[in-house]
UniProtKB/TrEMBL annotation:
GO terms for cellular component: plasma membrane. The chain crosses the membrane at residues 21-39, 71-96, 116-138, 144-163, 175-193, 205-228, 258-281, 301-319, 359-382, 388-406. It comes from Hymenobacter sedentarius. The central subunit of the protein translocation channel SecYEG. Consists of two halves formed by TMs 1-5 and 6-10. These two domains form a lateral gate at the front which open onto the bilayer between TMs 2 and 7, and are clamped together by SecE at the back. The channel is closed by both a pore ring composed of hydrophobic SecY resides and a short helix (helix 2A) on the extracellular side of the membrane which forms a plug. The plug probably moves laterally to allow the channel to open. The ring and the pore may move independently. It is found in: Cell membrane; Membrane. Pfam families: SecY. Keywords: Cell membrane, Membrane, Protein transport, Translocation, Transmembrane, Transmembrane helix, Transport. Belongs to the SecY/SEC61-alpha family. This is Protein translocase subunit SecY. Component of the Sec protein translocase complex. Heterotrimer consisting of SecY, SecE and SecG subunits. The heterotrimers can form oligomers, although 1 heterotrimer is thought to be able to translocate proteins. Interacts with the ribosome. Interacts with SecDF, and other proteins may be involved. Interacts with SecA.
Amino acid sequence: MNKFITSIKNIFAIEDLRTRILNTLFFIAIYRLGVYVVLPGVDPTRLKTGAQGLFGILDTLLGGAFSHASIFALGIMPYISASIVLQLLTIAVPYFQKLQKEGESGRKKINQYTRILTIPIVLAQSVGFIATINAEAIINPGTFFTVSTMIIITAGTLFCMWLGEKITDKGIGNGISMIIMIGIVSRLPGAIIGEAAAKGVNKSLIFLLEMVVLFLVVMAVIVLTQAVRRIAVQYAKQVGGTTQLDAQRQFIPLKVNAAGVMPIIFAQSLMFVPAIVASVWQNQSDTASYIGVKFSDYTSWQYNLTFGLLIIIFTYFYTAISVNPNQIADDLKRSGGFVPGVKPGRDTSEFIDEILTRVTLPGAVALALIAIFPAIALLLGVTRPFSAFYGGTSLIIMVGVVLDTVNQVQSYLLMQHYDGMMKSGKLRGRTAQPISIAS
Protein backbone atom coordinates (compact mmCIF):
# COMPACT_ATOMS: atom_id res chain seq x y z
CA MET A 1 0.00 0.00 0.00
CA ASN A 2 2.85 2.38 0.83
CA LYS A 3 4.41 1.69 -2.58
CA PHE A 4 1.09 2.51 -4.27
CA ILE A 5 0.76 5.81 -2.38
CA THR A 6 4.37 6.67 -3.24
CA SER A 7 3.70 5.94 -6.92
CA ILE A 8 0.67 8.26 -6.90
CA LYS A 9 2.79 11.03 -5.35
CA ASN A 10 5.49 10.48 -7.96
CA ILE A 11 2.93 10.65 -10.77
CA PHE A 12 1.64 14.05 -9.67
CA ALA A 13 5.18 15.27 -8.96
CA ILE A 14 5.93 15.18 -12.71
CA GLU A 15 4.43 18.35 -14.14
CA ASP A 16 3.94 17.07 -17.71
CA LEU A 17 2.33 13.83 -16.54
CA ARG A 18 0.10 15.66 -14.06
CA THR A 19 -1.08 18.04 -16.79
CA ARG A 20 -1.82 15.17 -19.15
CA ILE A 21 -3.84 13.28 -16.53
CA LEU A 22 -5.90 16.38 -15.69
CA ASN A 23 -6.47 17.07 -19.39
CA THR A 24 -7.66 13.48 -19.87
CA LEU A 25 -10.10 13.77 -16.96
CA PHE A 26 -11.40 17.07 -18.35
CA PHE A 27 -12.05 15.66 -21.84
CA ILE A 28 -13.66 12.54 -20.37
CA ALA A 29 -15.96 14.74 -18.24
CA ILE A 30 -17.06 16.62 -21.38
CA TYR A 31 -17.86 13.34 -23.12
CA ARG A 32 -19.84 11.98 -20.19
CA LEU A 33 -21.87 15.19 -19.95
CA GLY A 34 -22.70 14.96 -23.65
CA VAL A 35 -24.03 11.42 -23.17
CA TYR A 36 -26.95 12.86 -21.16
CA VAL A 37 -27.81 15.68 -23.59
CA VAL A 38 -30.93 14.39 -25.36
CA LEU A 39 -31.54 15.08 -29.04
CA PRO A 40 -33.87 18.01 -29.79
CA GLY A 41 -37.39 16.86 -30.57
CA VAL A 42 -37.19 13.73 -28.40
CA ASP A 43 -39.11 13.29 -25.14
CA PRO A 44 -36.69 11.44 -22.81
CA THR A 45 -39.52 10.26 -20.53
CA ARG A 46 -41.00 8.19 -23.37
CA LEU A 47 -37.81 6.46 -24.47
CA LYS A 48 -37.44 2.69 -24.24
CA THR A 49 -35.94 1.60 -20.94
CA GLY A 50 -33.19 -0.52 -22.47
CA ALA A 51 -31.68 -1.75 -25.71
CA GLN A 52 -31.50 -5.44 -26.57
CA GLY A 53 -29.42 -7.59 -28.92
CA LEU A 54 -26.93 -5.73 -31.10
CA PHE A 55 -28.29 -2.41 -29.86
CA GLY A 56 -27.69 -3.54 -26.27
CA ILE A 57 -24.03 -4.32 -27.05
CA LEU A 58 -23.67 -0.95 -28.79
CA ASP A 59 -25.31 0.81 -25.85
CA THR A 60 -22.84 -0.83 -23.45
CA LEU A 61 -19.85 0.35 -25.50
CA LEU A 62 -21.33 3.87 -25.63
CA GLY A 63 -22.06 4.10 -21.93
CA GLY A 64 -25.83 4.47 -22.37
CA ALA A 65 -25.69 7.18 -25.05
CA PHE A 66 -27.70 5.03 -27.49
CA SER A 67 -30.63 4.31 -25.15
CA HIS A 68 -30.67 7.93 -23.92
CA ALA A 69 -31.07 9.22 -27.52
CA SER A 70 -28.09 11.46 -26.84
CA ILE A 71 -26.34 13.84 -29.22
CA PHE A 72 -23.49 11.28 -28.89
CA ALA A 73 -25.93 8.45 -29.73
CA LEU A 74 -23.46 6.72 -32.06
CA GLY A 75 -20.36 8.00 -30.30
CA ILE A 76 -17.08 6.93 -31.79
CA MET A 77 -18.39 3.68 -33.31
CA PRO A 78 -18.75 4.98 -36.94
CA TYR A 79 -15.08 5.96 -36.78
CA ILE A 80 -14.23 2.42 -35.64
CA SER A 81 -16.24 1.04 -38.57
CA ALA A 82 -14.35 3.32 -40.97
CA SER A 83 -11.04 2.19 -39.47
CA ILE A 84 -11.94 -1.46 -40.04
CA VAL A 85 -12.88 -0.72 -43.67
CA LEU A 86 -9.54 1.06 -44.24
CA GLN A 87 -7.65 -1.85 -42.66
CA LEU A 88 -9.31 -4.25 -45.08
CA LEU A 89 -8.57 -1.93 -48.00
CA THR A 90 -4.86 -2.01 -47.15
CA ILE A 91 -5.00 -5.72 -47.97
CA ALA A 92 -7.07 -5.63 -51.16
CA VAL A 93 -6.16 -2.28 -52.78
CA PRO A 94 -2.56 -1.67 -53.94
CA TYR A 95 -2.86 2.11 -53.43
CA PHE A 96 -3.57 1.70 -49.72
CA GLN A 97 -0.86 -0.95 -49.43
CA LYS A 98 1.58 1.61 -50.79
CA LEU A 99 0.37 4.24 -48.32
CA GLN A 100 0.86 1.84 -45.43
CA LYS A 101 4.50 1.31 -46.42
CA GLU A 102 5.23 5.06 -46.64
CA GLY A 103 5.62 5.43 -42.89
CA GLU A 104 4.32 8.47 -41.02
CA SER A 105 3.16 10.35 -44.14
CA GLY A 106 1.21 7.31 -45.32
CA ARG A 107 -0.42 6.85 -41.92
CA LYS A 108 -1.52 10.49 -41.93
CA LYS A 109 -3.20 10.03 -45.32
CA ILE A 110 -4.92 6.83 -44.16
CA ASN A 111 -6.15 8.64 -41.03
CA GLN A 112 -7.50 11.43 -43.21
CA TYR A 113 -9.34 8.94 -45.42
CA THR A 114 -10.72 7.31 -42.26
CA ARG A 115 -12.13 10.65 -41.06
CA ILE A 116 -13.72 11.31 -44.45
CA LEU A 117 -15.25 7.82 -44.62
CA THR A 118 -16.68 8.28 -41.11
CA ILE A 119 -19.09 10.98 -42.36
CA PRO A 120 -21.12 8.84 -44.83
CA ILE A 121 -21.06 5.92 -42.37
CA VAL A 122 -22.47 8.00 -39.51
CA LEU A 123 -25.10 9.54 -41.80
CA ALA A 124 -26.26 6.06 -42.85
CA GLN A 125 -26.20 4.72 -39.29
CA SER A 126 -28.08 7.77 -37.98
CA VAL A 127 -31.03 6.83 -40.22
CA GLY A 128 -31.06 3.39 -38.61
CA PHE A 129 -30.85 4.95 -35.16
CA ILE A 130 -33.86 7.19 -35.83
CA ALA A 131 -35.82 4.08 -36.79
CA THR A 132 -35.06 2.51 -33.38
CA ILE A 133 -36.59 5.42 -31.44
CA ASN A 134 -40.16 4.56 -30.50
CA ALA A 135 -42.63 6.86 -32.25
CA GLU A 136 -44.15 8.09 -28.96
CA ALA A 137 -40.81 9.62 -27.94
CA ILE A 138 -40.57 11.83 -31.06
CA ILE A 139 -42.49 15.04 -30.46
CA ASN A 140 -42.85 16.18 -34.10
CA PRO A 141 -41.85 13.36 -36.48
CA GLY A 142 -41.19 14.20 -40.09
CA THR A 143 -38.56 15.17 -42.62
CA PHE A 144 -37.26 18.12 -40.62
CA PHE A 145 -36.75 15.98 -37.51
CA THR A 146 -34.97 13.26 -39.54
CA VAL A 147 -32.61 15.65 -41.35
CA SER A 148 -31.80 17.75 -38.26
CA THR A 149 -31.18 14.62 -36.15
CA MET A 150 -28.84 13.19 -38.80
CA ILE A 151 -26.84 16.43 -38.79
CA ILE A 152 -26.68 16.58 -34.97
CA ILE A 153 -25.64 12.93 -34.60
CA THR A 154 -22.97 13.38 -37.28
CA ALA A 155 -21.67 16.48 -35.51
CA GLY A 156 -21.68 14.54 -32.21
CA THR A 157 -19.58 11.74 -33.70
CA LEU A 158 -17.11 14.21 -35.21
CA PHE A 159 -16.86 15.95 -31.83
CA CYS A 160 -16.14 12.58 -30.17
CA MET A 161 -13.40 12.02 -32.75
CA TRP A 162 -11.94 15.42 -31.88
CA LEU A 163 -12.06 14.60 -28.15
CA GLY A 164 -10.28 11.29 -28.82
CA GLU A 165 -7.52 13.01 -30.78
CA LYS A 166 -7.14 15.64 -28.06
CA ILE A 167 -6.78 12.94 -25.41
CA THR A 168 -4.08 11.28 -27.51
CA ASP A 169 -2.21 14.59 -28.07
CA LYS A 170 -2.75 16.37 -24.76
CA GLY A 171 -3.67 13.54 -22.40
CA ILE A 172 -2.59 10.05 -21.52
CA GLY A 173 -3.36 6.85 -23.46
CA ASN A 174 -5.08 6.31 -26.78
CA GLY A 175 -8.00 8.74 -26.95
CA ILE A 176 -10.38 6.67 -29.09
CA SER A 177 -9.88 3.57 -26.94
CA MET A 178 -10.17 5.66 -23.77
CA ILE A 179 -13.59 7.01 -24.80
CA ILE A 180 -14.89 3.50 -25.46
CA MET A 181 -13.48 2.22 -22.16
CA ILE A 182 -15.05 5.06 -20.16
CA GLY A 183 -18.43 4.24 -21.69
CA ILE A 184 -18.05 0.61 -20.59
CA VAL A 185 -16.73 1.40 -17.10
CA SER A 186 -19.59 3.85 -16.46
CA ARG A 187 -21.95 0.85 -16.42
CA LEU A 188 -19.87 -1.18 -13.94
CA PRO A 189 -20.91 0.48 -10.61
CA GLY A 190 -24.59 0.21 -11.45
CA ALA A 191 -24.17 -3.42 -12.52
CA ILE A 192 -22.40 -4.31 -9.25
CA ILE A 193 -25.04 -2.53 -7.15
CA GLY A 194 -27.83 -4.23 -9.09
CA GLU A 195 -26.21 -7.64 -8.63
CA ALA A 196 -25.75 -7.06 -4.89
CA ALA A 197 -29.38 -5.97 -4.53
CA ALA A 198 -30.59 -9.00 -6.51
CA LYS A 199 -28.67 -11.43 -4.29
CA GLY A 200 -29.57 -9.67 -1.03
CA VAL A 201 -28.31 -10.62 2.42
CA ASN A 202 -29.30 -14.26 2.13
CA LYS A 203 -27.09 -14.82 -0.91
CA SER A 204 -24.20 -12.54 0.05
CA LEU A 205 -21.77 -15.48 -0.08
CA ILE A 206 -22.80 -16.18 -3.69
CA PHE A 207 -22.22 -12.51 -4.55
CA LEU A 208 -18.76 -12.70 -2.97
CA LEU A 209 -18.01 -15.83 -5.00
CA GLU A 210 -19.13 -14.01 -8.17
CA MET A 211 -16.70 -11.18 -7.43
CA VAL A 212 -13.87 -13.69 -6.95
CA VAL A 213 -14.69 -15.37 -10.27
CA LEU A 214 -14.79 -11.96 -11.97
CA PHE A 215 -11.34 -11.18 -10.56
CA LEU A 216 -10.00 -14.49 -11.90
CA VAL A 217 -11.53 -13.83 -15.34
CA VAL A 218 -9.89 -10.40 -15.43
CA MET A 219 -6.54 -11.97 -14.53
CA ALA A 220 -7.02 -14.51 -17.34
CA VAL A 221 -7.73 -11.72 -19.84
CA ILE A 222 -4.59 -9.87 -18.69
CA VAL A 223 -2.51 -13.02 -19.23
CA LEU A 224 -4.05 -13.51 -22.69
CA THR A 225 -3.44 -9.87 -23.61
CA GLN A 226 0.18 -9.83 -22.44
CA ALA A 227 1.30 -13.33 -23.41
CA VAL A 228 3.98 -13.46 -26.12
CA ARG A 229 6.12 -16.12 -27.76
CA ARG A 230 9.67 -14.79 -28.07
CA ILE A 231 11.79 -15.74 -31.08
CA ALA A 232 15.48 -15.08 -30.42
CA VAL A 233 17.25 -12.91 -33.01
CA GLN A 234 21.01 -12.47 -33.35
CA TYR A 235 22.64 -9.43 -34.97
CA ALA A 236 26.11 -9.88 -36.41
CA LYS A 237 29.03 -7.68 -35.33
CA GLN A 238 29.07 -4.50 -37.43
CA VAL A 239 32.07 -2.29 -38.19
CA GLY A 240 31.63 1.24 -39.53
CA GLY A 241 34.71 3.48 -39.84
CA THR A 242 36.37 3.57 -36.45
CA THR A 243 33.21 2.35 -34.69
CA GLN A 244 32.62 -1.29 -33.93
CA LEU A 245 29.26 -2.58 -32.70
CA ASP A 246 29.27 -5.88 -30.83
CA ALA A 247 26.82 -8.61 -31.74
CA GLN A 248 23.42 -8.08 -30.12
CA ARG A 249 20.76 -10.57 -29.13
CA GLN A 250 17.15 -9.43 -29.22
CA PHE A 251 13.84 -11.12 -29.93
CA ILE A 252 10.67 -10.95 -31.98
CA PRO A 253 7.60 -10.91 -29.68
CA LEU A 254 4.74 -12.82 -31.32
CA LYS A 255 1.60 -12.15 -29.29
CA VAL A 256 -0.61 -15.10 -28.44
CA ASN A 257 -3.61 -12.87 -29.16
CA ALA A 258 -2.32 -10.66 -31.96
CA ALA A 259 -5.86 -10.00 -33.24
CA GLY A 260 -7.06 -8.33 -30.03
CA VAL A 261 -10.82 -7.80 -29.80
CA MET A 262 -11.48 -7.64 -33.56
CA PRO A 263 -12.46 -11.35 -34.01
CA ILE A 264 -15.24 -10.94 -31.41
CA ILE A 265 -16.52 -7.80 -33.14
CA PHE A 266 -16.52 -9.49 -36.56
CA ALA A 267 -18.15 -12.67 -35.23
CA GLN A 268 -20.76 -10.75 -33.25
CA SER A 269 -21.80 -8.79 -36.32
CA LEU A 270 -22.37 -12.05 -38.25
CA MET A 271 -24.31 -13.78 -35.46
CA PHE A 272 -27.39 -11.68 -36.23
CA VAL A 273 -27.53 -12.91 -39.83
CA PRO A 274 -29.04 -16.41 -39.15
CA ALA A 275 -31.86 -14.97 -37.04
CA ILE A 276 -32.65 -12.26 -39.61
CA VAL A 277 -32.62 -14.71 -42.54
CA ALA A 278 -34.66 -17.29 -40.61
CA SER A 279 -37.30 -14.66 -39.74
CA VAL A 280 -38.15 -14.35 -43.45
CA TRP A 281 -39.18 -18.05 -43.70
CA GLN A 282 -40.15 -18.75 -40.10
CA ASN A 283 -43.87 -19.09 -40.99
CA GLN A 284 -43.10 -21.48 -43.87
CA SER A 285 -40.54 -23.83 -42.34
CA ASP A 286 -40.12 -25.42 -38.93
CA THR A 287 -36.35 -25.52 -39.45
CA ALA A 288 -36.25 -21.76 -40.09
CA SER A 289 -38.35 -21.16 -37.01
CA TYR A 290 -35.99 -23.35 -34.93
CA ILE A 291 -32.91 -21.50 -36.22
CA GLY A 292 -34.56 -18.15 -35.56
CA VAL A 293 -35.34 -19.06 -31.95
CA LYS A 294 -31.94 -20.57 -31.14
CA PHE A 295 -29.86 -17.82 -32.76
CA SER A 296 -31.93 -15.10 -31.10
CA ASP A 297 -30.98 -16.52 -27.69
CA TYR A 298 -27.31 -15.88 -26.98
CA THR A 299 -27.37 -18.41 -24.11
CA SER A 300 -28.23 -21.39 -26.37
CA TRP A 301 -25.46 -23.91 -27.11
CA GLN A 302 -26.10 -23.58 -30.85
CA TYR A 303 -25.46 -19.86 -30.71
CA ASN A 304 -22.34 -20.16 -28.57
CA LEU A 305 -20.83 -23.03 -30.55
CA THR A 306 -21.21 -21.08 -33.81
CA PHE A 307 -20.00 -17.90 -32.11
CA GLY A 308 -16.88 -19.63 -30.76
CA LEU A 309 -16.01 -21.24 -34.12
CA LEU A 310 -16.38 -17.89 -35.91
CA ILE A 311 -14.08 -16.24 -33.37
CA ILE A 312 -11.41 -18.90 -33.94
CA ILE A 313 -11.68 -18.46 -37.72
CA PHE A 314 -11.56 -14.65 -37.54
CA THR A 315 -8.62 -14.78 -35.10
CA TYR A 316 -6.56 -16.62 -37.70
CA PHE A 317 -7.80 -14.29 -40.44
CA TYR A 318 -7.04 -11.08 -38.56
CA THR A 319 -3.67 -12.38 -37.34
CA ALA A 320 -2.77 -13.19 -40.95
CA ILE A 321 -3.47 -9.63 -42.08
CA SER A 322 -1.88 -8.03 -38.99
CA VAL A 323 1.39 -9.98 -38.84
CA ASN A 324 3.33 -10.53 -42.06
CA PRO A 325 6.12 -13.16 -41.64
CA ASN A 326 7.57 -12.30 -45.07
CA GLN A 327 8.00 -8.66 -44.16
CA ILE A 328 9.50 -9.53 -40.77
CA ALA A 329 12.02 -11.86 -42.45
CA ASP A 330 12.90 -9.19 -45.05
CA ASP A 331 13.37 -6.53 -42.34
CA LEU A 332 15.65 -8.85 -40.38
CA LYS A 333 17.71 -9.64 -43.48
CA ARG A 334 18.17 -5.95 -44.37
CA SER A 335 19.22 -5.05 -40.83
CA GLY A 336 21.74 -7.90 -40.57
CA GLY A 337 19.69 -9.99 -38.14
CA PHE A 338 18.95 -13.71 -38.23
CA VAL A 339 17.25 -16.39 -36.18
CA PRO A 340 19.91 -18.77 -34.82
CA GLY A 341 19.83 -22.07 -36.71
CA VAL A 342 17.54 -20.77 -39.47
CA LYS A 343 18.62 -19.47 -42.88
CA PRO A 344 17.70 -15.84 -43.60
CA GLY A 345 14.93 -15.10 -46.10
CA ARG A 346 12.34 -17.72 -47.04
CA ASP A 347 13.32 -20.22 -44.32
CA THR A 348 13.01 -17.53 -41.65
CA SER A 349 9.59 -16.51 -42.99
CA GLU A 350 8.36 -20.12 -42.89
CA PHE A 351 9.80 -20.59 -39.40
CA ILE A 352 8.01 -17.49 -38.07
CA ASP A 353 4.77 -18.46 -39.84
CA GLU A 354 4.85 -21.95 -38.30
CA ILE A 355 5.34 -20.61 -34.77
CA LEU A 356 2.67 -17.94 -35.33
CA THR A 357 0.18 -20.61 -36.43
CA ARG A 358 0.90 -22.69 -33.34
CA VAL A 359 0.62 -19.88 -30.77
CA THR A 360 -2.53 -18.47 -32.41
CA LEU A 361 -4.55 -21.65 -31.75
CA PRO A 362 -4.51 -21.46 -27.91
CA GLY A 363 -5.02 -17.70 -28.16
CA ALA A 364 -8.05 -18.18 -30.44
CA VAL A 365 -9.59 -20.85 -28.20
CA ALA A 366 -9.04 -18.72 -25.08
CA LEU A 367 -10.58 -15.71 -26.84
CA ALA A 368 -13.63 -17.79 -27.81
CA LEU A 369 -14.06 -19.00 -24.21
CA ILE A 370 -13.82 -15.46 -22.87
CA ALA A 371 -16.39 -14.31 -25.45
CA ILE A 372 -19.00 -16.91 -24.46
CA PHE A 373 -18.37 -16.68 -20.70
CA PRO A 374 -20.99 -13.90 -20.17
CA ALA A 375 -23.66 -16.31 -21.48
CA ILE A 376 -22.43 -18.99 -19.05
CA ALA A 377 -22.54 -16.47 -16.19
CA LEU A 378 -26.11 -15.51 -17.11
CA LEU A 379 -27.18 -19.17 -17.10
CA LEU A 380 -25.59 -19.59 -13.65
CA GLY A 381 -27.79 -16.85 -12.18
CA VAL A 382 -25.79 -13.64 -12.67
CA THR A 383 -27.94 -10.68 -13.66
CA ARG A 384 -27.76 -9.61 -17.33
CA PRO A 385 -25.99 -6.20 -16.80
CA PHE A 386 -23.35 -7.71 -14.50
CA SER A 387 -22.79 -10.82 -16.64
CA ALA A 388 -21.60 -8.60 -19.53
CA PHE A 389 -18.43 -7.81 -17.54
CA TYR A 390 -17.45 -11.49 -17.27
CA GLY A 391 -15.92 -11.45 -20.73
CA GLY A 392 -16.61 -10.47 -24.31
CA THR A 393 -15.78 -7.23 -26.02
CA SER A 394 -16.29 -5.05 -22.95
CA LEU A 395 -13.78 -6.79 -20.69
CA ILE A 396 -11.07 -7.17 -23.35
CA ILE A 397 -11.30 -3.48 -24.29
CA MET A 398 -11.17 -2.43 -20.63
CA VAL A 399 -8.12 -4.58 -19.86
CA GLY A 400 -6.28 -3.55 -23.03
CA VAL A 401 -6.81 0.20 -22.50
CA VAL A 402 -5.88 0.05 -18.81
CA LEU A 403 -2.67 -1.87 -19.56
CA ASP A 404 -1.63 0.56 -22.29
CA THR A 405 -2.35 3.55 -20.05
CA VAL A 406 -0.41 2.04 -17.13
CA ASN A 407 2.48 1.35 -19.47
CA GLN A 408 2.57 5.00 -20.58
CA VAL A 409 2.52 6.21 -16.97
CA GLN A 410 5.26 3.69 -16.21
CA SER A 411 7.41 5.14 -18.98
CA TYR A 412 7.04 8.66 -17.61
CA LEU A 413 8.04 7.51 -14.12
CA LEU A 414 11.11 5.64 -15.35
CA MET A 415 12.23 8.55 -17.54
CA GLN A 416 12.14 10.81 -14.50
CA HIS A 417 14.14 8.21 -12.50
CA TYR A 418 11.22 7.31 -10.24
CA ASP A 419 10.37 3.76 -9.27
CA GLY A 420 7.80 2.31 -11.62
CA MET A 421 4.31 1.21 -10.64
CA MET A 422 5.45 -2.42 -10.92
CA LYS A 423 8.22 -3.94 -8.82
CA SER A 424 9.99 -5.18 -11.92
CA GLY A 425 9.95 -1.72 -13.51
CA LYS A 426 8.08 -2.97 -16.59
CA LEU A 427 4.91 -4.81 -17.47
CA ARG A 428 5.12 -8.53 -18.08
CA GLY A 429 5.30 -9.42 -21.72
CA ARG A 430 7.14 -6.21 -22.57
CA THR A 431 10.83 -5.51 -22.94
CA ALA A 432 13.17 -2.58 -23.29
CA GLN A 433 14.29 -3.63 -26.77
CA PRO A 434 11.49 -5.31 -28.71
CA ILE A 435 11.48 -5.63 -32.46
CA SER A 436 8.31 -4.03 -33.78
CA ILE A 437 6.10 -6.18 -35.99
CA ALA A 438 4.94 -4.40 -39.11
CA SER A 439 1.33 -4.95 -39.99
